[in-house]
Write a structure and sequence with these properties.
Blueprint lengths: L2 H4 L6 E4 L5 H10 L7 E6 L7 E6 L12 E5 L19 E4 L3 H13 L3 E4 L3 E4 L6 H9 L5 E4 L2 H9 L11 E4 L2 H9 L13 H7 L10 E7 L5 H7 L4 E12 L6 H4 L5 E4 L2 H11 L1 H4 L3 E3 L2 H9 L6 E2 L5 H12 L7
Parallel strand pairs: 5-6, 5-12, 8-9, 8-10, 10-11, 12-13, 13-14
Antiparallel strand pairs: 1-4, 2-3, 2-4, 7-11
């Protein structure tokens, strides 16, 4: 390539795969008429969480310790302060997402948009309910006007709605959801939840749930995970309701994990989105390796971590995907990822 000729063309010059020959290239560009003071930016691993930008002048470029792969930009545009990518709040952070595959992509996408490198390693696998769907079929057939259906997760909402032959069968039935994520599923189906608690936890839902009145029928249907704790069922029953628990889906621990050392290599944060996920991760890697890394979605999950001998670094203010993202941004917002 006649770099001395390219120097006479003017405008911005983009050099690809030029690190090994950068001394020859820069010398030729200066010989072709470019000023040694011409701004240069070398971007390594561009658009990835490991992105690094080196800024200098053309005359000083040869003295900089550049590494491949780098894109080298020569021209006045290189002097512009276009480092928005590196200023994202989670830039340079490596975060382990332990949600089941069904929910991992939403969280992972949000974290990547904020600059994080995401490692997805589902701690749990969603399976069909142990009864083969008999309970969901019974719910769909027997739910009646005046009943409540309480949905405590997005998956529970999806499984419940999929079991219905006609959404019009829900006329006169009231729907309660644990938070905005679950509400989104219901709204996308063309319905409006009757109850969305301000505090997005099981305890928050209980605090907003009405007591049963003296009517002929006081039934609450609770489609949920096979591993769901009894907080909701017992709390609603204590308010005078007849609670009918339905296994909407099974949850089992992942059958195999990589070596514990490999799992947490370079990890800055482990997201614990439920008590069952926290227990599964702990079973795989142990308390010592989780120290100083676990971020909890809510008080119940934090309590589980503490029982397992792991002190959570922080607990989300709101027990939701958005709450976890906000928690991580808050935790890492003021610190340097290189520290």
């Amino acid at each position: 390539v006649r770099w001395d000729h390219i120097a006479k063309v003017g405008g911005t010059i983009i050099i690809l795969m030029g690190v090994a020959n950068i001394a020859e290239i820069s010398t030729a560009l200066i010989a072709g008429g470019l000023s040694p003071a011409t701004p240069v930016a070398a971007i390594r691993w561009g658009t990835r969480p490991q992105q690094q930008t080196t800024r200098c002048t053309l005359g000083d470029l040869v003295s900089r310790p550049l590494m491949a792969p780098s894109v080298i930009v020569v021209g006045e545009v290189a002097a512009e302060n276009l480092n928005w990518f590196e200023q994202r709040p989670l830039f340079g952070r490596r975060i382990l997402v332990t949600r089941p595959t069904e929910g991992a992509s939403r969280l992972a996408g949000r974290l990547r948009d904020l600059g994080a490198e995401v490692v997805s390693l589902p701690s749990m696998t969603v399976t069909e309910p142990a009864d083969g769907g008999v309970g969901l079929a019974r719910l769909a057939a027997e739910v009646a006007p005046g009943d409540w259906v309480v949905l405590s997760s997005r998956i529970a909402a999806q499984r419940f709605l999929a079991s219905l032959a006609d959404l019009r069968s829900l006329g006169g039935i009231q729907l309660a959801v644990v938070g905005p994520g679950t509400a989104e599923v219901v709204i996308q189906a063309g319905m409006t939840p009757d109850l969305v608690p301000a505090v997005t936890t099981a305890e928050g839902l209980l605090g907003s749930f009405p007591s049963a009145t003296q009517t002929e029928r006081s039934v609450v249907w609770l489609p949920q995970s096979s591993l769901a704790p009894p907080v909701l069922s017992e709390g609603i029953a204590a308010r005078g309701w007849e609670v009918r628990v339905v296994e909407a889906y099974g949850m089992v621990r992942a059958e195999s994990w990589p070596d514990p050392h490999e799992i947490l290599e370079g990890i800055d944060a482990v997201t614990c989105m439920s008590s069952s996920a926290a227990a599964a991760v702990h079973a795989a890697v142990g308390s010592e390796r989780l120290a100083g890394k676990c971020y909890s979605i809510g008080p119940s999950t934090s309590a589980t971590l503490v029982e397992l001998g792991v002190q959570p670094v922080a607990t989300a203010e709101h027990a939701s995907l958005d709450g976890m993202v906000e928690c991580l941004v808050w935790a890492f917002g003021e610190s340097d990822p290189q520290e």
